[in-house]
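We modelled the chain as a single entity of 496 amino acids. Its sequence is:
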Amino acid sequence: MRIRTKLIILVSGIVLAMGTVSMMISINATIRQAKTELKSTEDSLLTHRKEMLKVILGNAYTVIETAYRETNDLEKLTESIQGQLKNVVGLAFGTLKEIYEKADITDEEKRELAIDVISGLRFNRTNYFWIAGLDLTMIANPSHPEWIGKDLSGLKDVNGKRIFPNLLEAGKKDKEAFFNYMWIKPDTKKKSPRIGYAKVFDPWDWAVGAAIPIELAEKGLRKRSINTIKNLRYGEGNKEYFWIHDMDTKMVMHPINPDLEGKDLKGIKDPDGNHLFTEMVNVCKENGEGYVEYIWPKPGEKVPVPKISYVKLFKPLGWIVGTGVYVDDIQKSIAAKEAELKEQVTSSILMQLGLIFVVIAVFIVITLVVAKKISLPLINASLMLKDIAEGEGDLTKRLDVISKDEVGSLSKWFNAFIERLHNIIVDIGGNAETVTAASGEVLTISEQITDGADELSGKANSVAAAAEEMSTNMNSVAAASEQASTGLMQISPIPL
């Protein structure tokens, strides 16, 4: 594999590895940041929703608080009752005026009609109107018909106080009068303070009046506050509402499900088994107010979704005022935000991949240029060595030293090596003639030695033949001697 290819692979691998590591770090950081942002967004939305609940409930709480203050402030309560009395008596007075202005009946018939109509009028379900003359003779009283025709100027309440002490004087002067007195409630036989009001109808010298028990006024204020809260709505489409239950988990008012009113709520729990109203009571016992989270189906739906309620205890009455909102929209917002962040992460990954490939391409180009500068001198040196090895090298050629780095140093010392090799070859060439002449002389001498050797070889052959003949003769003599000795021993053996 060529150096250039190796460099390209190496650089590309390094850049790709570094880019991948960098991309993974960036992706992990982006994902962590996205998770943090999602958590922060969810917490922010929930906090905002909780704060909104707290503020909105505060408005409803103020209604109850104001009503309670009015019921415990005798002056304000009196003002409230007097205002209500003036309104209702004013309506009865208007009815009386309409009857008086009728032209198709006699004055006596008008009076009789007026008595019948006024006696049949009611307000606050049970409260009624009465009619008396300016001499305080009772003309109409549906609750006490036995008083009709009697003088009530001496009528006293249960405390012995005259009920109408200033009605005659006020009637003549201001045409109206308020008066306070203590009465006995028919059902409980208990004392009940009341405030009365009468207005003079001049054409007939009648005083039309009514009275309201302070206790009933207190209940009325509470009821009005309850009705006010009952009709309060907020949120998208004005679907969110308020409810009231007491510390015994008994429902006082629920605008959406009035069947719950008066019922014990201890057994009511969400699909997860949380006794939500009991939890609300516990929260109010501990802190006086707080949040309760649970799941509950939306109106008209079956699938339960997360809901957060804020409740606050009104201690004087033992009421817990509450309101809640569904927070599934927050989860939907978080899901949409998560999808958006995923798209951003995907776009970031694609962008970084593109950037990595661009960087790799740039580095490949740079590597090709650098590799060419590095490999070209090496290639030239390799080719020169190849030519030298094959015996066809031109030792006069030199490499170009184009840099001062290691490659330049290699070229420099390669040129020095070739220079020295060239000088050696030249020296060897200069001594070649001397070697050739000496070899000629050696050749002549070797020829002479060869001729002498041939002559010597011939003589040696003659000597060898004579020696061989002599050896043969000697062998014959030895054999004859051995035969003679054998014969002598056979002839006369001599003991030794």
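As a brief sanity check on the tokenised model: The mean pLDDT is 79. The two ends are 101 Å apart (CA to CA).
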